[in-house]
Amino acid sequence: xxxxxxxxxxxxxxxxxxxxxxxxxxxxxxxxxxxxxxxxxxxxxxxxxxxxxxxxxxxxxxxxxxxxxxxxxxxxxxxxxxxxxxxxxxxxxxxxxxxxxxxxxxxxxxxxxxxxxxxxxxxxxxxxxxxxxxxxxxxxxxxxxxxxxxxxxxxxxxxxxxxxxxxxxxxxxxxxxxxxxxxxxxxxxxxxxxxx
Length: 196
Known about the structure:
three-stranded antiparallel sheet, five-stranded antiparallel sheet, 2 helices, about 25% strand, alpha+beta
């Protein structure tokens, strides 16, 4: 009769030490991620988007100004930032990109109001504002279909491990999103709602 050989049990103390070490590393990483925060002088988390940041077309009558944004507590090693605004509730099957900005220098920690207007020149020269789902580069405010329930607008600042993404102003939202996830060190989010 053949005997079955089982692996020798590992010392129970070693297992506990390994588990504690993993917990400490995970806890430290979570704490660092929790330090990365995005705020705005005109947006309140989970609040309603003010009319000044609503689109001015397609039946919407806002001012279409991108909001002031500030962030702090990014992960160590951050070499650039990106900012996106996305509506997952848009009735398209793929959501709606309202703003795509990348190659923001790592020493920059805020965007002034209306910096999403490319004609104003409020962003550094190397920063790129890509084409949104409105078909043009720059900020396009909230404008859900009339009668829809409130849509959620996710303002996200991304901390990246590269100085520049290898993309252009004509890159699609999906391609930019792919690159952001490939180079992300951390992200901070501020969400607001809007309906009409």
